[in-house]
Write a structure and sequence with these properties.
Blueprint: E1 2-14, H1 18-29, E2 35-38, H2 47-50, H3 82-95, E3 102-103, E4 108-114, E5 119-124, E6 127-136, E7 158-161, E8 175-179, H4 185-192, E9 198-202, E10 209-210, H5 219-227, H6 229-251, H7 258-271, H8 275-281, E11 293-294, H9 298-302, E12 307-310, E13 314-318, E14 321-324, E15 329-331, E16 334-337, E17 352-353, H10 360-363, E18 382-384, H11 397-418, E19 423-426, H12 428-442, H13 446-449, H14 471-477, E20 486-489, E21 504-508
Parallel strand pairs: 1-2, 1-6, 2-3, 4-17, 6-18, 7-16, 8-9, 8-16, 9-12, 10-11
Antiparallel strand pairs: 1-21, 4-5, 5-6, 13-14, 14-15, 19-20
């Protein structure tokens, strides 16, 4: 028999991106210091740590893509790049004293709810622990999705995903195949085009692309925002307000997006003179159905003589030959997949076993659903940051994260008020009613009616990703926990109600 120590904490936070660090800051502000942040990598940053491909940057203005409680007057550009965003998250970890709570290389391998002890048993790569509450902040853009392309294993060259960029692979002089035309691809293509011998873009669906109003933020602006915080707040408020006014077109009146389509077509015409290429790059669905992309360099790069467009997906690989769904064949030395992430089939869901002995993935087999985007029925004291139906199509996810942090804060307050060793489990009826209202509203949104197949939709064609309203509305509905929507769980009769005071020793075979 061998002994091992299983530490107990009040809260375990999974992930150290915006959601995880934000949750940690909010816990400290609540006076809760008995928590850990479990991170599978060796540094903070989440998707902004993992995505280091050439040209990687945010498509939301920097002053809106940052925490309201941690403003940064030193953003270098309107749309800052990956290194600056990652550096910002490192500063957040330092400024708010989160380093002592971080546990690196501690990937969560499995979690199981103990119905008698009313806590979570968590197995990590760094050892086991138990927690009263678990906050999952793994995010939907954390696990890359590579399609199962027949023959891919026969390809003799390098194969990578945009979120796992191989910096040791020098692309200069190579024949590169870029698979996909999403937000990552439109940044990678212009970044590598001048250096490669030949670049072939496999486009299954053409994206809508608008100009990117990017520029350097002047020293005078930085001084003004640092010296007079009200100007920084006003800038953020203006950016937020403009996007709030756009929401109704996406969620209620998609036909009003015609003007935006005109602007996008005009943007393309300025760079793409070849009518055949222009026709291949013109989407056949309503703008906004897929995420609208921003770039001033994507179309000019596609017009260069060393770039080819295959207006079809990748069908199969035969050695170094790539075959498109249209039958075209292309030789390549390197393949880069920009094919997105596991968004509607979150890998973490396979590792979480709830009160009924089923995993979250099993409960979500017909589609994700969670009360107010946070609580799944049958998974007590388990909250998700950026959960089902919290995604946005035109604004900053940081706004949604902060709204969910408000919900987390009130969830912890309710537990303290109710007494020691209490758990809250979302009632199935409450989750079903919440989801019914969401899907009812979703039916008329551009994401459901725009005529495209996007990553917002799950395998059943249901939109379990996007939020069909404004960020202000989401903030309102997550301001506090409604106890009527939860079952209050108490220790079984005869069990002590006090929480473990610290580490305990457990005997394992």
């Amino acid at each position: 028999m061998a002994e091992r120590e299983r530490r107990h904490v009040r809260v375990a936070v999974i992930g150290s991106g915006f959601g995880g660090l934000g949750a940690a800051v909010r816990l400290r502000r609540q006076g809760i210091t008995d928590f850990v942040i479990l991170e599978r990598a060796d540094a903070v940053g989440g998707t902004w740590r993992d995505n280091t491909y050439p040209g990687c940057a945010c498509d939301v203005p920097s002053h809106l893509y940052s925490f309201s409680f941690a403003p940064n007057p030193e953003w270098p550009r309107n749309f800052s790049g990956q290194p600056h965003i990652r550096a910002y998250l490192e500063r957040v970890a330092d400024t708010f004293g989160l380093r002592d709570h971080l546990r690196f290389r501690a990937e969560v391998l499995s979690m199981r709810w103990d119905t008698e002890a009313l806590h979570w048993e968590v197995e990590t790569a760094a050892g086991p622990l138990t927690a009263d509450v678990v906050v999952s902040a793994t995010g939907p853009l954390s696990d890359p999705k590579v399609p199962a392309v027949p023959g891919l294993d026969t390809f003799p060259g390098k194969v990578s995903h945009s979120a796992r960029w191989d910096h040791d692979d020098d692309l200069r002089g190579q024949r590169v195949a870029m698979i996909g035309t999403g937000a990552s691809a439109i940044q990678i293509v212009p970044a590598i085009q001048p250096d490669v011998e030949r670049l072939t873009l496999f486009q299954r669906t053409a994206p809508w692309v608008l100009p990117r109003a990017d520029r350097k933020i002047t020293a005078a602006e930085k001084w003004l925002h640092s010296t007079f915080p009200a100007t920084r707040a006003a800038r953020r408020g203006l950016l937020w307000g403009i996007r709030e006014m756009q929401v109704s077109a996406f969620t209620k009146r998609p036909d009003e997006l015609g003007l935006i389509e005109f602007l996008a077509r005009n943007h393309m015409k300025k760079a793409i003179k070849d009518p055949v290429l222009r026709a291949a790059l013109t989407p056949d669905y309503r703008i906004g159905c897929k995420r609208i992309l921003l770039s001033n360099t994507y179309y000019p790069a596609l017009a260069q003589p060393n770039v080819d467009l295959v207006a079809a997906g990748l069908k199969e690989v035969r050695g170094s030959t790539l075959v498109g769904a249209d039958g075209s064949e292309v030789e390549a030395d390197t393949i880069v997949f920009g094919t997105g992430f596991h968004v509607t089939d979150l890998p973490i869901a396979q590792r979480v076993t709830g009160a009924h002995g089923t995993t979250l993935a099993e409960e979500w087999k017909d589609g994700m659903s969670a009360l107010r985007g946070a609580s799944a029925a049958g998974f007590p004291n388990f909250l998700t940051i950026i959960g089902p139906n919290t995604g946005l199509g035109n604004s900053s996810m940081i706004l949604m994260i902060e709204a969910q942090l408000n919900y987390l804060a009130d969830f912890m307050r309710q537990l303290d008020v109710l007494g020691p060793k209490i758990a809250l489990d979302a009632r199935p009826s409450a989750v079903q009613e919440w989801n019914r209202r969401i899907q009812q509203r979703m039916a008329r949104t551009v994401w459901n009616t725009g005529g495209c197949d996007s990553w917002y939709l799950d395998k059943n064609g249901r939109n379990t990703t996007a939020w069909p309203g404004t960020t202000a509305e989401f903030k309102k509905v997550t301001r506090q926990v409604d106890l009527a929507e939860y079952a209050v769980l108490r220790p079984p009769a005869g069990k002590p109600a006090d929480r473990p005071a610290g580490p305990r020793t457990e005997v394992a075979a």
